[in-house]
């Protein structure tokens, strides 16, 4: 991937913007979640667990825990959350259910497996008290030991995270933080119902550094109401003061027909496509000028960051926790709506908290749906992952890995790539596709060519605009 590209290479000609800005998946998975099967039940989940856990396995695993609670709703949010101010009402039953699910999972795992990566997301994981955080982490590592050098990360909200939270997290082994910022402009914050002063965020990051957290990620969002190039430039200046190790720059997906809270955001307050594009281009130019590398799919990292080094080595991978350096590590999800990715196949938990807690109280896995991937699914998944993560698709390597003739198998897709090559999104050379800077911006469009399910989904309002 062209990490050495100049910022001008990421300026998208407007005729291309008009041509490629259309609805498309974000490819947090392939196949995407809408095509997963509701007939994939707890029995199927157990079969997958058994298939992937021979008694002598010592393969490391990743663990995701979903904490769905928040004290207030951010109107742009697309996550599975429950707004509840009375913490005592919900945390006890939910934590009990988490421990019950952990016990069921432990029974399915080979004894020698350890956690090499853990992430808590939400919601707001620091909705939990410091004591609850310590106790839940202790329960997890008692059931599944922590591997030496494991990466433990958590999403925190600067508005509710105290120094006592940070102390409990460090004592529990967490070493990385991620936090939402979106925008520091007060008018923008008011319009999305998330008031978060810069000083509060800066204080949290300062205290986290002081306590020894080795990596800080912040999330920004463009396309929010009342944003302008000028206002976002001020936010970028404040981000420079924070000096995060990683930055995620997300495009706000306005899909009120899917996320009812977004109806509270007035469409007339949203920046138009040209303004959004200018904001994005400004942010990319700013981050590159400050030495960050464009990892892809909205993410930036410092040159010495593990993500940057993995991408340079061609070993970067992606799962539901985001980009990861841990290729081939199975991901097991705990908590309501969480997703597991095991040996390439998918399992998702129930989305409603009462259903989740009830199923676990009955001693059953809380499976909602899932998918066994076919050989073609696994092949296309590998192609899409290489494009998103490493920006280079080597035909010979894929042919050898999957025992196919790449150019024959994907003859139609390669023909469909020709316009992308003409438009400078990709370089289509003998035996290789290399994603260009324009293609990094439009990587969702590049991936859509390889999606065997997309045509059947395009008649439905399922996806946000690619730009």
Topology:
Blueprint: H1 14-20, H2 42-51, E1 61-67, E2 69-70, E3 82-83, H3 87-108, E4 115-122, H4 130-143, E5 146-156, H5 163-171, E6 176-182, H6 186-191, H7 198-210, E7 215-222, H8 229-242, E8 246-251, H9 273-289, E9 293-296, E10 299-301, H10 306-312, E11 317-319, E12 322-324, E13 330-334, E14 339-342, E15 345-349, H11 353-361, E16 367-371, H12 375-389, E17 392-394, H13 395-402, H14 406-409, H15 411-422, E18 426-429, E19 432-435, H16 437-441, H17 443-448, H18 454-457
Parallel strand pairs: 1-4, 1-13, 2-3, 4-5, 5-6, 6-7, 7-8
Antiparallel strand pairs: 8-10, 9-10, 11-12, 14-15, 15-16, 17-19, 18-19
- What is the strand arrangement across the widest sheet? 9-10-8-7-6-5-4-1-13
- Unreliable residue stretches: none
Fraction in beta strands: 15-25%
Number of domains: 2
The CATH topology of the largest domain is what? pyruvate-formate lyase- activating enzyme
Distance between the termini: 20 Å
Q: Residue-averaged pLDDT, rounded? A: 93
Task: Give the C-alpha Rg.
Answer: 22 Å
Find the count of extended strands (DSSP E, 2+ residues). Answer: 19
Q: Helical residue percent?
A: 25-40%
Task: Briefly characterize the structure.
With 467 residues, the protein is of the alpha/beta class. The chain is built from 18 helices and 19 strands. The protein has a nine-stranded mixed β-sheet, with helices on both faces. Strands 14-15-16 form a three-stranded antiparallel β-sheet, with helices on one face.
